[in-house]
Amino acid sequence: MARLLRQPKLLKEFLGDSAWLRECQNIARQEGKGKFRALLYCGSKRAMEIFRAHSLNIVYRVFGLITHGYFIIIALSFFFQSRLPQNLIELADSLSEPYLGVIGIYLVLKEVRIRVGQFPQRIILRESFVAAWVLLLVISTALTFFSQSYHVDGVYRLIITNSLASVIIRIGTLFRY
C-alpha cells in the first residue's frame, strides 16, 4: 500500500491540480457549507475519479502484494513448521482457496497490462512467482522424500495445490486470442 502512495503520478493528479480545490472553496461559499465539509466532499469525489482512472494498476499492485506475501507465508510455514505456531499454518490453509482466485485475477491483470502496453512483454523478475512456486515444489518434494525432518502434511499439500494451480493459470494466460 505504501508503494501506491509513493507513486508520483497518483499524487500529482490528486495534489498537483488545484482546480478541484478552488471548486471546493466555491461550493463552500455558495452552499454555506464549512470549508472542511466541502473539502471532504470534493476530496472524496476527486479520489474516486483518480481511483477509476487507475483502478487496474491499484488492483494489480494490491493483488501482487497478496500473492507474494502468501507465497512467503507458505514457504516459511514449510521450512520452519516446527517453530511456527499452528495457528499460522491453519490461517494459511484457510486462505488457500481465496488465494487461488487472487492469483488467477493477478495473472490476467498482468496480461491485460502487457497487451495495453503498460509494461513491456518480457520476463520481469518481480513477476516470476510462478517459477518460485515450482522451485518451492521441487525443493519441498525432495526434502519430504529424502529427509526425515519433513513429511507429507497440510503445508506440503498447500504447496502442491498452489504450485500446480499457478502453473495451470499461467499456461492459460499464454494463449493469444
In brief, what are we looking at here?
This protein is an all-alpha fold. The chain has helices at residues 2-6, 8-16, 19-31, 35-79, 86-94, 96-115, 129-146, 154-174.
Annotation, overall tally of beta strands = 0
Tell me the major beta sheet.
Answer: none
Specify the structural class: mainly alpha
User: Whole-Å distance between the termini?
Assistant: 33 Å
Total helical segments? 8
Task: Give the % helix.
Answer: over 70%
Low-pLDDT runs of 5+ residues are 3-7
Radius of gyration: 22 Å
What is the domain total for the residues?
1
What pattern of helices and strands is seen along the backbone? HHHHHHHH
Shape: elongated
Give the strand content: under 5%
Average of pLDDT? 77
Q: Secondary structure elements and their pairing?
A:
Elements (H helix, E strand, L loop, with lengths): L1 H5 L1 H9 L2 H13 L3 H45 L6 H9 L1 H20 L13 H18 L7 H21 L3
Task: Explain what this protein looks like in three dimensions.
By secondary structure, this protein is mainly alpha-helical. The protein has one domain (2-174). The chain contains eight helices and no strands. The protein has helices at 2-6, 8-16, 19-31, 35-79, 86-94, 96-115, 129-146, 154-174. α4 (35-79) packs across α6 (96-115), α4 (35-79) crosses α8 (154-174) and α7 runs antiparallel to α8. The longest helix is centred in the N-terminal third of the chain and has 45 residues, at 35-79. The chain is elongated, with a radius of gyration of 22 Å. Residues 3-7 have low confidence and may be disordered.
